[in-house]
Structure formats: structure tokens, C-alpha cells
Amino acid sequence: MQLIAPNTIKENQQAVFFTQGRLYGDSVAVVELGHIDFDRQALANQLAERVYDEAKKKPDALLQSRLNSAELVVSGESIETMPARNLPRRPISEHDPQWWEARFRIDSVEKGSTSRSTIVVYYPTSIDIVWRGSPRLKRGQQGILLLHAREGKWLPYDALTALHPLDLQPNSKLQQIRKLLGK
Prior knowledge:
Layout: E1 15-24, E2 28-37, H1 41-69, E3 72-83, E4 99-111, E5 118-124, E6 142-149, E7 160-161, E8 168-169, H2 174-180
Parallel strand pairs: 5-7
Antiparallel strand pairs: 1-2, 3-4, 3-6, 4-5, 6-7, 6-8
């Protein structure tokens, strides 16, 4: 953490820091925007409880954001996976997503509409940092997909993608997703 004024914090001093992220990876680097000093345990407990309550809300807010931007939300099963076929030639890049496609059988449509019983979903298989956390669909995998229209370069015009870690949810979250969708 980069402090606003490094000499204002002493060893073992308790404070609440307000920060802005700078670097993200296996660790996080932040810059202080401000801090509040305190030395009473009651204040610390109260603050910790409030932070915990707010942190519990965050996963729903992030999931809600992905649901809002999704073109199609479906539950079902991946019935076949393979390297993506018939993609246009593209420049070689160190961040190449190494596209694969999955045929996904639809059991229910939660958002959007489709008359098809199966769809093709594109997803990256690269282990590059750009694609870390992207869902890697497997044959027989069941779940809920939050699909986005053509989020990847060099994909067909009507491509549906699952690129974000939240774009694949377990079936156990179906009721929560329906609630967030207002169903």
C-alpha cells in the first residue's frame, strides 16, 4: 500500500484505509485515499460488522451486472466441446484466446429468447493472464450460462461467448439468478 503521508502511520496502529487499486495479479497494490484512526475495540467490531455486511452484498451486485449485460441466460448441459472451427485467420498474438466451442443443450431460457434446443458457445482455453478465470466448459458439465454477444475478436457475427468467471454458474444458483432477473 502506498500511503498519502508515510510517516503518519506507526507500527501496530489500527486504522481503516480507503484505497484505490493500482495493480492486480497474485497480489494487489493499492494507493491510500484516506484513513480513519481508531483504538477502541468496540469501534473496530462495529466497523468490521459493517464491512462484512457490505461485502456480502458485493457478489450479488457483480452477478447482477453480468446478468444485465447478458444477451441470453440459459441452463442446460455441455454435450460436446472441440477447438473452434471455421474462424477467420487472425494475427498471431501472445494473448491468443485459443478459442474452443461447446454445443450446449438448453433445458431452460432464463433471459432472452431462442427457439433452438442447442447453441454453440465460444470460450477461451488459453492460460494467458488475459483469460484467467474464464469458464472452460467440459463435456457433460451442467450449469447456467450467462452468454454475451460477440465479446471476442475474430468470432462469427452471431457468436455467443462465456468469458467472465461469473458467466458459468452452478444449477444450485438458479433460484438466486431468477430472483436477480425479477422472475
